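S., here's the first fold you wanted:
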Amino acid sequence: MWAKRVMVALLAAPVLLLGPVPTAHAAPDPSLTVTEVTVDRTSVAVSGLNTVPILVRVKGVYDSTEPGDQDRTVYVVLERTSGTGPLRWMVSTNLALQPGTTIQNAVWSGTLNVPSTATGTFKVTGVMPRTFGVFSGDMTEPTPFDGPTVTVAGYHLPKVTASVSPKVVPFGSPYSIRWAVTDSATGKPYGTRLTVLLGVDAECAEVGGLLLRTDVNGIVTRSYKAADAEWVNCLRIPGKPFDISGLGLVVARPGIVSAVPSKASAPVGTLVPVNGSVLGPPYRCPVILQRLYGATQWRGVSSGNVRQSGRFTVTAQPAYRGLIPYRVYFPTCNRYQAGLSKVFYIRGT
């Protein structure tokens, strides 16, 4: 579970994918005791899509007699302490138990592959007695450890952009996304074909997805099914074991509103519920009942919010006798574009 949250945190996105989500009742594995964590380099310089390996060594004890635990691996967790690079976390590769040691007197060793997107300073904050990338669903958190820091000077960081076609995707329609990877320092492509992973929904946080190569301009285009528009779509630049960079997005949707008054006529001053729906649904987004004043001016007279079902209720109140025009306005909210219902009428009597 914790590894999945790190994968989400590593994917820089304009949607809610940044940072770990607190896990209820999570706790470290009580079998692991860490006595020492060392790195063979405390500062590195990295450019572009390269990574620089740092040797990581962990000493400790894993108190277990289970046969399956005797060759258990661990990985080290590092958190950003300063700097403005897009990565908030790094993790080492799965560190293997070294020859001549056992889990009762363990030395685990392996590499931390540092990308340019880690520019800034990171600190070892914990050790996880699991295999990174294997999502078992358990609630284990890293065993805390106050370890060394690593300072990263990153240059020519990758930038991922996306262009959705059409820009606003109608419900029930397929669409395409043109993804591009460029050098953020120059604005130009790296000039070579890049390996990227295109994912939908869980593929943006776990394993899976479509592994593709960009052209030499860093561009790759994918066609998506209509159903894919309901989920996060992403491009990931895979590293070992965590992504070097990436981008996740949800496509824009039209604001499609319908509304019907509960009564076609009512005495002046009477409250008349108006029920309606917005496709999506755009849960908790506002809707505004508008009344026509004069020949052209629409003014808000009541408001509400879209429920989880997509339904909403606002209230009309006929102000005079005669046929009164109303409509429901849905303002732009998150990925949903502004929309209007058809005009309807309530007769004040």
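And the second, which I think is the more interesting of the pair:
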Amino acid sequence: MANILVWLIRNLPAIFNAYSTLLIIYALMSWLPNARTSGLGRFIARLVEPYLNFFHRFIPPVGMVSFSVLFALLFLRLVEYGTRVILVFLFNLLV
């Protein structure tokens, strides 16, 4: 059990960073014509849109700018920090 927790503690930042990178790429694709309709764009959209739809419901766009990606990134960092604290606490209980 301790080995699994150590692996999670070590690899958690990489997992969250990869998803954050996908969120940023998805946001940047909105500036490029037809980027979201490409194969890569549709693949990233399938991974990112279910998470972003939660924020789209509560954060309306201001003019032509949507801040939902920004809040999604901030919330993702909070979840990463909370998960890390819980995993370190569990590891300390086992050791």
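Why I say that: Helices lie at 2-29, 39-58, 68-94. The chain has a mean pLDDT of 93.

Talk tomorrow,
H.
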